[in-house]
TrEMBL record:
SMART domains named among the record's database cross-references: WD40 (SM00320)
WD repeats: 69-110, 111-142, 168-199, 200-241, 345-388
Record key words, sorted: Repeat, WD repeat
PROSITE patterns: WD_REPEATS_1, WD_REPEATS_2, WD_REPEATS_REGION
Identification of the protein by name: Uncharacterized protein
InterPro entries listed in its UniProt record: WD40/YVTN_repeat-like_dom_sf, WD40_repeat_CS, WD40_repeat_dom_sf, WD40_rpt, WD_repeat_multifunction
Disordered: region residues: 1-54
Organism: Trametes pubescens (White-rot fungus)
Acidic residues bias: start-end ranges: 9-22, 40-54
Record-linked Pfam families: WD40
Length: 423
């Protein structure tokens, strides 16, 4: 690879985030990343389209969804929504991704080219590009054709490098894509050129989760061995690293992470049920949240901004210091980070798989998805249930908000994606 480095000023305070990396800048690949464990998906594809594996004719199923997309032939592992248009991208066990209309359920584009399960999908900030990532190690990019036409897309490029793609995240403003791999490496690409900008090597296990900070200036990644690394995108060397050798950070592997809107705190969920609060300015553990059962993996973390009065508002709400964690114990716990106290517990009948908060002015509403086949909308100010969303015949593996938060789109182990009104 070429060795030209990104200009430092692109990440300085006040820099224009959209131009923070020159499209021609490509960085050296550092380290071979070592070898990570392999976690293959279940090869059983008996479910087929429409959740036939889960159908029981003796049961009367409730379905309050407004639309469904049944084209996948097997489990649907990932779904994401376009930032403005009525389009969702889903990826599944059938080695395919799809773009489809969430208002009609119509298939728009079949996203082909993968040779193994598609486990990640993601739209960039302006919705002009969509990425799919798979267990085959490929990241494939499509772009929208025409500024006014959201129904037509064309293949742009394929990015290679990772052994198996664990997750994808776009920069909050720029056309830069971040991916975590099963082989311990983290990749950074510039689009539309497809140039590799950086390969971060520092983890010792599969990189299970990660993200840009909301201000776009830093990257946080974490692995299955329990290590968290805070990166400056300009450098292959960590800003700081936390490992299980510090007893305060022993989580038996890290399974989820989120960064607060101010980009000052990260909340990390562990495979053992532990939750830790990390100061990104100090590079240290500043809190431990104990609310989930021991040994129950924390699968989702979501910050919530509470702008209106309620039992959970006050100093924590004013600072954005409310976070929700969801785990395999079926609980979603609401925490006040100003006091490090548990304020409410939301109950599912099985594992919580994802959490999402609506945008302002309804940012106090959160949607949880679960293996119990149900999504639920909650009021985080009071911990009360607002609405249940039913229609899946199997576990819900992923979910996303669309159309400005007015709908939630879910991906099921039953091979179907469903659309629900959030309220």
């Amino acid at each position: 690879m070429a060795s030209k480095r990104v200009e430092d000023e692109h990440f300085e305070e006040g820099a224009d985030d959209e131009d923070f990396i020159d499209p021609n800048d490509v960085l050296v690949e550092f380290g071979d990343g070592g070898e990570g464990g392999d976690f293959p998906m279940d090869d059983d594809e008996e479910g087929g389209p429409g959740g036939e594996e889960y159908m029981d004719e003796s049961i009367v199923y409730e379905d309050n969804s407004t639309q469904h997309f049944p084209s996948h032939k097997g489990s649907v592992f990932a779904v994401s929504a376009h930032p403005t248009a009525p389009v969702a991208a889903s990826g599944g066990e059938d080695d395919l991704g799809y773009l489809w209309d969430i208002t009609t359920g119509d298939e728009l584009v079949k996203l082909t080219g993968h040779t193994d399960s598609v486990t990640s999908t993601a739209f960039n900030a302006d919705g002009e590009l969509v990425a799919t990532g798979g267990m085959d190690g490929k990241v494939r990019i499509w772009r929208r054709v025409g500024k006014e036409n959201w129904r037509t897309w064309e293949f742009l490029t394929e990015l290679t490098g990772p052994d198996e793609v664990m997750w994808l995240r776009w920069h909050p403003k720029g056309n830069v894509l971040l991916a975590g791999s099963n082989d311990t490496t983290v990749w950074l690409w510039q689009l539309p050129s497809g140039n590799t900008m950086q390969v971060f090597a520092g983890h010792k296990g599969p990189v299970t989760c990660g993200s840009f900070t909301p201000d776009g200036k830093r990257i946080v990644t974490a692995d299955a061995e329990g290590t968290l690394i805070y990166w400056d995108p300009r450098s292959p060397s960590p800003v700081f690293k936390l490992t299980p050798t510090d007893a305060r950070f022993a989580l038996d592997g890290i399974t989820s992470i989120a960064v607060n809107p101010a980009s000052t705190l990260a909340v990390v969920g562990g495979a053992s049920g532990g939750v830790r609060v990390i100061s990104l300015s100090k590079g240290d553990v500043v809190g431990a949240l104990a609310g989930h059962q021991d040994g129950e993996s924390v699968e989702a973390v979501e910050f919530v901004e509470l702008a209106t009065p309620g039992p959970l508002s006050g100093s924590a709400a004013a600072s954005g210091g409310v976070v929700v964690t969801g785990a395999t114990d079926g609980k979603a716990c609401i925490w006040d980070l100003s006091t490090m106290r548990l304020r409410a517990t939301l109950e599912h009948e099985d594992a919580v798989t994802s959490l999402h908060h609506l945008p302002a002015p309804k940012a106090h509403l959160i949607v949880s998805a679960s293996v119990d086949k149900v999504l639920r909308t909650w009021d985080a100010r009071t911990g009360t249930l607002v609405r249940e969303h039913k229609g899946h015949h199997g576990p819900i593996l992923d979910a996303t908000l669309g159309l400005g938060g007015s709908v939630v789109v879910s991906a099921g182990d039953d091979g179907v994606c469903l659309v629900f009104q959030t309220e």
